[in-house]
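Sharing a chain and its predicted structure for anyone who wants a worked example. Both blocks are below, sequence first, tokens second.
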Amino acid sequence: MRHSWILAAAPLFAQTVDFSSIHSILAARCVGCHSAASPQGGLELGTYLGVRRSIAPGAAAASKLIQRVTGEKGARMPLGGTALPDTEIALLRRWIDQGAPGPATPTDSGWKPSMALVAPTLPDSTEAHPIDKIVSAYMKERGVAIPAPAADAAFVRRAHLDLWGMTPPEGERADDVVERLLADRKRYASHWISFWNDLLRNDEGVVYHGDRKSITPWLRKALESNLPYDKFVDALLDPAPKDGPEGFLTGVNWRGDVSASQIPAMQAAQNSAQVFLGVNLKCNSCHDSFISRWKLKDAYGLAAFFADEPLKIHRCDIPTGEFAQVKFLYPELGSVDTNALLAAKRAAAARLFTMPANGRTPRTLVNRVWNQLFGRGLVEPPDDMDARPWSPELLDWLAADFVAHGYDMQHLLRRVMSSHTYRMASAKDEPAGAYVFRGPLPRRLSAEQFADSVSAITGEWRMLEPKTAGPASYARDWQLKSTALGRALGRPIRDQVFTDRQTNPTTLDALELVNGATLSTALARASRRLTGTLAEPPRPLFDSGVTGNQKVRIDIDVTGATKLWLLLENVDSYDPERVIAGWADARFSGPGGSATLAEVVRQTAQPLLFRGDKAPLDTVRVRTPSTLVAGISGRGFEKFQAFAGADEACLQSDINPRLRFFVFASEPDRRRLHPAAGDPPAPLPGAESNRKRLVRRLYVQAFSREPSGAEAKLAESMIKSADGLEDLLWAIFLSPEFQYIR
């Protein structure tokens, strides 16, 4: 059971929501019907002033915009479309409750970033590390005391979470920890791939109204081999024909339900500009932007690099009669003939994004990495690289150093994480007014960090199921389809680029943490695993592997079995609720006679689906998922033979059945239908009967510290049973101390 005093983590402080984030949501989901050209219902959301008319600044609950996107008053919007995700609605609420701050100007006190990249001269100071020299001079100039370093344990925890995405094992030492973590490329890649999946809108196991090509094999190899960043960007913008990451450029095919601003070439322009240059083109893909200097023709000019035919320019989905001319966002760097072949245009785009004269690309990457490691970028927001950095000198020095070392991404991480600046104790708050760097900000664990750390501590890993019959492998969270908990904690569906996640606690993630099936099931199993009472799951007698339109032959020995469990599992069928499948020609046989599966199952009064009286007696039809239990004790059966597959009525593209059939001789564990093989991402913890040692181990692994006397006494009193241990795990994993990197 769960104790009522367990609460979800609260935000340490709320960051101000930038209007550019709000406009991105409205531009993607609302402006098509509510722009100046098409203000349906008298509502115009294409400008800041128009949006202000639909809200009550400081009171989200009373705002018409919130009431309509939630359906609290009137029909839910977008009308007839997919509802806005809870994370986007939460962002809208937070922005309104903060007073709905308007768009920031793209420049600050006349600030204009240069294109050329020149390393500035380092300040003359006693600090040995280049970053510390710049930061020390910056803080002294502003009268800010340089923070003391974080304790060794806090530093080790921070480094492990930043490089491997998991809390550290017991006994990890601080000296050379960054080098040791970077040296394990597999664990490094398995954490940083989530960062790149967000940026490159790549995901695993996603089913939604659209198609895309995965780039996971290429991306994982690129991270494990530490592919230089200029080569990394080049491959994404000019992919090799056979094994290149073409999925980034082809974008999402929305199956015909698409606006002019979302055709693949426009997606390629928006995504590449946003990810690699820190330029948001979403607004000016429909019309001239009102929050930046970019125009409609700028978006189309970049999109023309990725189009295999002339692009007709549309303004708010209305054709203008003009065709786009190939033009880079920064034409001083060069261009290519508008009539060139697609291959030549892609090659030109890759060259323009990565050429030495383009200092914007390395600055943008450095800023994104700094944002990941410190909780706030050198430039904020990270998608507006025209904004003034809090330290232009630090941004330029880091970017120039990055380029000078061959665009080496691991060198960049090593350079930053070896500084005293990275090791500073985290700032306690973020004072109002202009931002001043005072140290790293506390950062909430990402969805993947949370899931993987829970798994590392408890040994309760999710499994990557093979497509064919055989053992499963232990998996990091990124390798699998997101759970309800993961989505509540900010893991996006990635049908678009995500450069900044919503990580502040929401009502939804509190409900998932406290009451959701994902965590409750994992912790119930973990409590039994840690006490040695979790039974080993049985192996299947039969596993069909993933099936589609084909039927699979079953012919297995059931000698000595008293019961059989016949399972049908859905594996991402497009419309699983319409899938009907079954077991045809299904018979038991042995020296004492034979019987059909239907006859055996009918005796247990299990509900079946039959096609009226005309259904064959040896055919059982079921919906997915299903479990049939066949009691065969004492009947002398030695064989079970059948064909398993989807009903012919389901073999159509809008259902697209993808199924898996199993037969077990003992009750299966639905979370472990396949035996596990290979090594887990972290060593599995052994069962521990000594309560004192178990409590200490949990505290050290979760918090990187020993429990206090009072904590140890309370925790040891709780874990006299598996239920009590489950409660303790809830208390640990829901505490802010676990959920934040400090």
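Comments welcome. Residues 19-97 form one domain.
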